[in-house]
């Protein structure tokens, strides 16, 4: 697979000292140092000191900051090919590096759709030439993401696709979904699906309920999500395929996921940082930057998601990074496009849950590091000897105000504009290479 982050034996060693070392995979939280050499973690713990640092190593005093694996975002739109006016791989990965994200799983609903090996190759080459972090392409599950004809999963996987999805387009036909899961199973491939019944969602633009009635907006019932999810889970059980629900936001969906996991099926689920930290009331006076798919749900629904994350039922947190320009967002709420950016703010927004005491720090980080790595079968996501040196340093307590004009994404549609967050990423390292650093 094409990558600019192949191990380099002549790279300058890095020694991070006085750090709070957190490995979510083993739930360890210790004080010590970290040695990076030739693109991998060579040593870590209290025994790593300035006295035993290699010659010509760069010594970095972390001053008690957290050092942990780099974040892995399983859902982000990178713009290329075809939507460079919204985002490019260069700008998306710059935002990712500033937010502590070292691996992006790029969604396939580009123009052209990533349903041909040549397009997979294009994304990999652009990432190699212009990306600051790792970019892994998802390929389309069906041709054109149209839900009718299964894509050539085997050839796409050989070209470098690491998972298969139709993005925000749910596969409506149950027989097509069954065949896709069966076909993917033969390649041990992961199917990532967005569960939403398009007919039941209809023209809905926010959560169906009292708030949508008060605002005079068409609503999307929670059942639009759960009906498709329940179908998918039954088909995954029938076929034995690997299934991941990309974003769930309804308590009914949590019940379905729980039952499937108890039954031993190979299913996982994610939710977005927006659905964990915001609710329908935040839409306020028709704030279109909070028009999302699925819609932000009620506060009790959000609390249920947070509890499921804390208990380990929700496996993954994604940014659901979806840049939209002024022409599609500065419109009446009903006419505005869905989506928000999130690569640069995912970690800091997630730390809200830690500071409130709702989710332990190791559990939050696990949902952004080792859990997605395990699902995608990646070597990254752990802070252990021999692991790839995809590492970040951040201060979980340092406050900052989100200024959209300072964000690195090409678009500014952040739902956290003007919000006071805590958690400044001070250094991002990918394959032993520093790709983001805050000046001391």
TrEMBL record:
<dbReference type="InterPro" id="IPR013108">
    <property type="entry name" value="Amidohydro_3"/>
</dbReference>
<dbReference type="GO" id="GO:0006145">
    <property type="term" value="P:purine nucleobase catabolic process"/>
</dbReference>
<feature type="domain" description="Amidohydrolase 3">
    <location>
        <begin position="356"/>
        <end position="435"/>
    </location>
</feature>
<dbReference type="GO" id="GO:0004038">
    <property type="term" value="F:allantoinase activity"/>
</dbReference>
<dbReference type="InterPro" id="IPR004722">
    <property type="entry name" value="DHOase"/>
</dbReference>
<dbReference type="InterPro" id="IPR050138">
    <property type="entry name" value="DHOase/Allantoinase_Hydrolase"/>
</dbReference>
<dbReference type="InterPro" id="IPR011059">
    <property type="entry name" value="Metal-dep_hydrolase_composite"/>
</dbReference>
<dbReference type="InterPro" id="IPR024403">
    <property type="entry name" value="DHOase_cat"/>
</dbReference>
<dbReference type="InterPro" id="IPR032466">
    <property type="entry name" value="Metal_Hydrolase"/>
</dbReference>
<feature type="domain" description="Dihydroorotase catalytic">
    <location>
        <begin position="64"/>
        <end position="249"/>
    </location>
</feature>
<dbReference type="Pfam" id="PF07969">
    <property type="entry name" value="Amidohydro_3"/>
</dbReference>
<keyword id="KW-0665">Pyrimidine biosynthesis</keyword>
<protein>
    <submittedName>
        <fullName>Amidohydrolase family protein</fullName>
    </submittedName>
</protein>
<keyword id="KW-0378">Hydrolase</keyword>
<keyword id="KW-0862">Zinc</keyword>
<dbReference type="GO" id="GO:0006221">
    <property type="term" value="P:pyrimidine nucleotide biosynthetic process"/>
</dbReference>
<dbReference type="GO" id="GO:0046872">
    <property type="term" value="F:metal ion binding"/>
</dbReference>
<dbReference type="Pfam" id="PF12890">
    <property type="entry name" value="DHOase"/>
</dbReference>
<dbReference type="GO" id="GO:0004151">
    <property type="term" value="F:dihydroorotase activity"/>
</dbReference>
<dbReference type="GO" id="GO:0005737">
    <property type="term" value="C:cytoplasm"/>
</dbReference>
């Amino acid at each position: 697979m094409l990558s600019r982050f192949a191990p380099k034996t002549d790279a300058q060693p890095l020694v991070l000292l006085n750090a709070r070392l957190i490995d979510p995979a083993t739930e360890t939280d210790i004080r010590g140092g970290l040695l990076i050499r030739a693109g991998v973690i060579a040593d870590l713990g209290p025994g790593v000191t300035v006295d035993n640092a290699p010659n010509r190593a760069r010594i970095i005093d972390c001053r008690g900051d957290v050092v942990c694996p780099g974040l892995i975002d399983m859902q982000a739109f990178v713009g290329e090919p075809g939507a460079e006016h919204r985002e490019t791989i260069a700008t998306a990965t710059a935002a990712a590096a500033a937010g502590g994200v070292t691996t992006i799983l790029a969604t396939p609903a580009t123009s052209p759709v990533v349903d041909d090996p040549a397009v997979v190759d294009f994304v990999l080459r652009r990432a190699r030439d212009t990306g600051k972090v790792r970019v892994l392409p998802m390929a389309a599950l069906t041709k054109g993401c149209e839900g009718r004809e299964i894509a050539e999963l085997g050839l796409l996987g050989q070209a470098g696709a690491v998972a298969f999805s139709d993005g925000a387009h749910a596969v409506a036909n149950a027989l097509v979904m069954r065949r896709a899961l069966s076909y993917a199973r033969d390649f041990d491939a992961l199917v990532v699906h967005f569960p939403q019944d398009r007919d039941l969602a209809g023209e809905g633009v926010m959560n169906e309920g009292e708030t949508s009635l008060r605002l005079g907006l068409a609503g999307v019932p929670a059942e639009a999500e759960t009906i498709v999810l329940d179908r998918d889970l039954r088909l995954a059980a029938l076929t034995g395929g690997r299934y991941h629900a990309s974003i769930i936001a309804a308590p009914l969906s949590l019940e379905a996921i729980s039952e499937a996991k108890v039954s031993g099926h190979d299913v996982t689920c994610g939710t977005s940082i927006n659905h964990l930290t915001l609710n329908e009331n935040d839409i306020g006076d028709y704030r279109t930057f909070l028009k999302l798919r699925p819609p932000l749900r009620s506060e009790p629904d959000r609390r249920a998601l947070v509890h499921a994350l804390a208990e380990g039922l929700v496996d993954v947190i994604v940014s659901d990074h979806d840049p939209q320009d002024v022409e599609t967002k500065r419109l009446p709420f009903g006419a505005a496009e869905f989506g928000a950016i999130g690569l640069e703010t995912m970690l800091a927004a997630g730390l809200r849950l830690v500071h409130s005491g709702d989710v332990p720090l190791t559990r939050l980080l696990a949902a952004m590091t080792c859990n997605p790595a395990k699902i995608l079968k990646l070597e990254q996501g752990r802070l252990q000897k021999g692991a790839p040196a995809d590492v970040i340093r951040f201060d979980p307590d340092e406050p900052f105000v989100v200024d959209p004009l300072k964000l690195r994404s090409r678009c500014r549609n952040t739902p956290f504009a003007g919000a006071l967050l805590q958690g400044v990423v001070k250094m991002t390292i990918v394959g032993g290479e520093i790709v983001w650093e805050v000046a001391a």
